[in-house]
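=== RUN LOG ===
request id: a7f3
mode: sequence -> structure
chains: 1
length: 201
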Amino acid sequence: MTTQKSKNRLSARDITKAAMFIALMAAGANATAFITIGTVPMTFQPFVAILAGILLGSRLGAFSMIGYAALGLIGAPVFAQFTGTAVIVSPTFGFVLSYILMAFSAGLIMERSRRTVPAYFTASFSAITICYVFGYTYWYFFFTLSAGGALSMGGYLAILATWIPFIIKDLIMAGVAAVIAPRIDKAVNRRNTYTGTSTAA
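=== RESULT ===
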C-alpha cells in the first residue's frame, strides 16, 4: 500500500519538470502567434505537448498539460495571442484540450515500448493525429454551429483542406520532436521516473 502511494505521489523534481513544460507551452503559444491563417494563430504548442509526453511520461505529461490549461482558465494570458479564459468560448479550445490527450498518448506509447527510434516516431505522429482528430473536430462543430450552418462530412473535409498549412507545419514539428527526443530523453531521464527503469550508463 505504501509503495503504491509513493508511486502516485509527485516529487519536487516531477513538479519542477511539469512547471518547465507549462512555461514552454506558454512560450510556444505566442512565439509565432502573430502569424495567423484566417483567425487561427500558428503556434508550437503541439510540438511541446509531444515532448511533454515523451519526456515526462503519460501521467506527468498529462498533468503538465492540465496545469497549463488550468493556468489559462483562471485568467493567466498563456494561450495563443496572450488570451486566457476567453478561449473557452473560442473554437480553438478543443486544441487546448487535445494537448492533454497528446501528452498522455505519447507517454503511454513510450512506456509500453522499447525506447527505439520507431517508438519515438510512433509516439510523435500518433500524438499529432490526436491533435487534429480531436482539436479540429471540436473546432469544426463549434464554428459551424455558432455560425448557424449545417454539419456535413463534405463541409468537414472542405474546411479541413484549408488547414493544410497547419497540418504540414505540425507534421514537420512531429518529425523534429521524434528526432531530437532520444538525445533529450537520455539527458533528462537518466533515471526514468515514470517507468522505474534506469537509463544511466
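=== NOTES ===
Residues 33 and 42 are 5 Å apart (CA to CA).
Residues 11-192 form a domain with the Arp2/3 complex 21 kDa subunit ARPC3 fold (CATH 1.10.1760.20).
=== END ===
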